[in-house]
Amino acid sequence: MPPATNPSSTMFIDYLTVEQVFSYQLPAIVDIGLCRYDKRTGEVLNDTQPGWKHEGSYSTSISIRVDGCKLIVKGNPSAVDRLDNLDGYRTIDQCIAVYNRILREYGDETGTRLPGFTKCTEWDFTQSEEGGRARMIGNGARIRRIDLTTNRSVGKGNERQYVNALSTQRLGYKNGHLYEDGNTCDWSARDHYEKAYIKSRAIEKFLFPKCKRNFGPDSDEFKYLLQLRDFCDANGVVRMEQELKAEYLTREGLDWWGLLDERRFYGIHEKFLAIDQKLQVTAMEYDSIAERLLATGVVTNTKAANLTANVAMQWMHKHTFDFTKSQTQKYRARLNRIGINIAQPYDATRNTLVFVRRAEEIVTSDVLVLPTWYRKPAVHLSLVAA
Fold this sequence. Notes:
Layout: E1 12-21, E2 34-37, E3 44-48, E4 52-55, E5 61-67, E6 70-75, H1 92-103, E7 123-126, E8 135-138, E9 142-153, H2 159-166, E10 170-171, E11 174-175, E12 177-178, E13 184-188, E14 192-198, H3 199-215, H4 220-235, E15 237-245, H5 246-251, H6 264-273, H7 286-295, H8 302-316, H9 326-336, E16 356-357, E17 362-363
Parallel strand pairs: 16-17
Antiparallel strand pairs: 1-6, 1-9, 2-3, 4-5, 5-6, 7-8, 9-15, 10-11, 12-13, 13-14, 14-15
Helix pairs in contact: 3-4, 7-8, 8-9
């Protein structure tokens, strides 16, 4: 299989849940367990241990659980033994190498260590007794969640305006939701979840308190985070994150490590990053809306442009629409193509749309050049099992 990395992509992995079922009982790591057995035969049906957290340097934690023959690990491998995760690992191999290094630290009183995750080399199909849909089964590790991330630079001081504008956009069939603080917006579906947030504010909210507690406000560690916060402020960094859940990964055939085509993640993530391409209206004025509809080819004549712009004006004045009517659906689709979503209530604080192009009022870039002092994650590829 070709290399999983894409040299032109800025995407990295921010969270990963992995599980694997082994052909033998895994060692008991913790002292307390829950054992289910058949009272008639004495056969052990299930032997479960409570999960525990691996505490790395700088208070980074990874969750580990042993359930009989199943091993489950979840967390942010890009944040292990690091103060931050502004940048992270770009391949699943690198992430699982971090997990395998951690797993080697745990064993039972006999010295038997937890096994590391292994790649799938074979697969088969299984079907339930009820005759349901056949499922693919591999002989190695399975990805149950993966978060794909890109740092988008929008220019100093533009972050809040950009996030607010993104919150007016639909992603698939989901409307955006803006948090009360105005620093984050998200889109939530059953099998995937996306969000955009101001990175410097997240550093202040989540990393500052923890670092002050552990190292003190005068420590070199806290000074480093201050420097990192200022760097994000200077570049207007908006974090674009996409969580793909188990249902999505299974449906798309992206769950069995070693058998999946990791390059497909780049295409999935690019579709999310393109959400700002419809932010093209500079002002909520009748003329500008009609002109934009014509300029972008949404409509072909002035009459259609004016009628559609009139619907936008009604929306701004709190008019209630009946979206079961085909005419309303047509106007909604036209306006949605230029970034106006009349399915959401009009909010003057959110719907003063920005003009987002690669060389206009807000210039965005997905290539964030990290400073020389930035502490990049270490590489542990030697610990990846084949």
